[in-house]
What does this fold into?
Amino acid sequence: MSDRPDVTVVVAVYNTMPYLTECLNSLVGQTIGRERLEVVAVNDGSTDSSGAELDRFAELYPDTVKVIHQENSGGPAAPSNRALEIATGRFVYFIGSDDYLGEEALERMVACADDNGSDVVIGKMVGTNGRYVRQTMYKKNDPDVSLYGSDLPFALANTKLFRRELVEKYKLRFPEDLPVGSDQPFTIEACVRASRISVLGDYTYYYAVKRGDASNITYRADHLSRLHCTTRIMRHTAGLIAPGPQRDAVLKRHFTWELAKLIQDDFLPLDPGTQRELCAGIAELADEYLTDELRDSLDVKRRVRIVLAQRGAVAELTKAIADEAEHGAPPFLLEGGRAFAAYPGLRESALQLPDRAYELVGEAVPGRLANGTRLISAAWDQSGDSLFLSVTVRIGVHGETDSAVIRLAPTAMPKSADKAAARRLPADHRLPDPIGEFTRAPEPDGGGGTVLTARIPLSAAKAKAGVRVYVDVAGSTYEIPVRTRGLPMPLARRWGDTVPHRASANVNPKGRLVITTAPLWEPALSLRARVRSLLPRLKRKATR
It folds into this structure.
């Protein structure tokens, strides 16, 4: 191996057998070649066979693999720093000891850095064994991305290629007293200092493994420890980036991710003192860094919870969390073309929170609207030779609901709508006028929704039609399939004497209400009528 390898791969190891073997094999088998590679693995006091496995690889590849054994430090920061002290490569790359690389990963990333003068290169990462990895960063190759105008703030793991000259120039190291998120200060500062950051999305560079016991991706720190770590990270970031849109772009991650995770369902069983302490810590950070622009950029659920914590409204916060866990998202209040989520605290004089904190601001909410929509009843209503569907549906909006209607529409919806069970229609989409009779009334039990009742003639239906709600919310029109939620369906019904039809109400595999209509052959027709219907066919056969 040359005196100076192209890349040093740092592996902090603690009890990761048998995953460690695949990790190390993926390193020594890189197409960049072992003569251009240095692996520095630090055994952080493992109590399984990880240390022995590292020694085995060092014996097999003495010119490539270096191993350091030390007492357990409690996290990956100290072993990573120890490895940086002896790293000699032009670049340094960090990998989790339970993960592995694509065969060409290092060769491709080093070439990208050399071709573009990049100080940081981010290769596409995917999850395996059910591990989730956000993919927004990896849509395409981009030789020059910004920390402030991309999804990079949501991808702050240190599993990237860094130019070691940059690392040493700014003495970048991992804070060893942070039990959670110790890679963030290193990664954020490297990206702030970098002259160029590149992203490679054309190849799978990194495979993030979810262990069988998922122990590699669970928080081992309690709520207050996580708050302490997040506070340190946010203040370190604020010391690097001046107030303004760029700082907001990075800190948005911490408000929507780390801080929001502190006030989820597991907030409820905490003792009142811990709840108050958490809210006080969130309030301190919000007072310092939650600008109006950053607040408005958050989704309404997280925004409301953070603002309630900021105000110290622990009772309202716990109610908001508990109500949503039990009943789903609250209804929206429609007013003057705006929509407000009816979470606890909205327009409560004692709190005096701004309406803007509860407002739907540029956010699509198909899932919330779908979850708040349910079938109350469905029945056939026959009048003379016509059949009507009488249906009553509850929707999760109230206030100015004049636009809300029930319609029959073709069953198929785009695949993009399947997950949320609803969709936001394009801005230029225009719905035809609804057919039938409609009434709208507030939900009688005070649930905050609206009850729609429709009487729709089946003469307007296609052979197969889904029952859908259409409603305008904050300037957007949403299409919401009606789920039956286990309600019994009315029996199939025949209607029409001149042209008999049959109608049935069914539940499709997604639990949505579907109406099927079809012409019905009537056995009671007279023999003369049957012969008359067959004559055209007999004449055609006779002329052949």
